[in-house]
Amino acid sequence: MQDHIRAVGKIFIAFGVLGAVASLAVLAIFGGPAGLLAFDSEAKHNDITTIPVERLLAAVYIAFSLFMTVPLILVGRAILHWQTWAHTAAILTASAAILLFPLGSAVGVYGVWVMFQPETEPLFLNPPETRKNAPVR
Questions:
Q1: Please, what's the largest Cα pairwise distance for the chain?
Q2: Omega of the bond leading into 71 within 30 degrees of 0 (cis)
Q3: pLDDT by residue for the chain (137 residues), tens digit each?
Q4: Residue 63 is assigned to a structural domain of this protein
Q5: End-to-end CA distance of the chain, in Å?
Q6: Residue 113 in domain
Q7: Is there a contact between 39 and 52 (Cβ–Cβ < 8 Å)?
Q8: How many other C-beta atoms are found inside a 10 Å radius of the C-beta of residue 19?
Q9: How far apart are CA 79 and CA 103, in angstroms?
Q10: CA–CA distance, 47 with 56 (Å, rounded to integer)
Q11: Considering the domain boundaries, does residue 22 fall inside one?
């Protein structure tokens, strides 16, 4: 189970970095938030109702993706360092990552599955020895 837990930590970090890069790239392609949320040029008045729905949904998705990068990276690092709080934080972060369809759903389901295994919580309460604190032989 230790291998699965380490895998979740590494996947969280990689997915957080990938999400930040991809979200910022999409924002750059659309010209930033102002370009993404631009009003319809054919509308007679300019208010939020004239923003195309697909652009509004894309903006919400990108904002949520950027918001999730920080918890994913921090919790992934905490998992790899066997912090006691990382178990609960990983469950919450993985549950929220499920909303980042399609790749986030796979990452979130795997993270939730690993963290709900009966062997997982005792490993965070009594962490295994790592190379840093292993006795010298």
A1: 78
A2: no
A3: 889 999 999 999 999 999 999 999 988 888 887 777 776 666 566 666 667 788 888 888 999 999 999 999 999 999 999 999 999 999 999 999 999 988 999 999 999 999 999 999 988 888 887 655 544 45
A4: yes
A5: 26
A6: yes
A7: no
A8: 24
A9: 20
A10: 13
A11: yes
Task: Report the predicted TM-score, pTM, of the whole model to 2 decimal places.
Answer: 0.81
Q: How far apart are CA 98 and CA 56, in angstroms?
A: 20
Which pair of structure tokens corresponds to residue 43? 């509308």
- State which H helix or E strand residue 108 sits in: helix 103-115
> 115 lies in which domain range?
2-125
Length of the chain, in residues: 137
Integer Cα distance of 106 and 66 in angstroms: 18
How many structural domains does the chain have? 1
Element holding 12 (H helix, E strand): helix 2-30
Rounded Cα distance between 20 and 17, Å, is 5
* Amino acid of residue 22: A
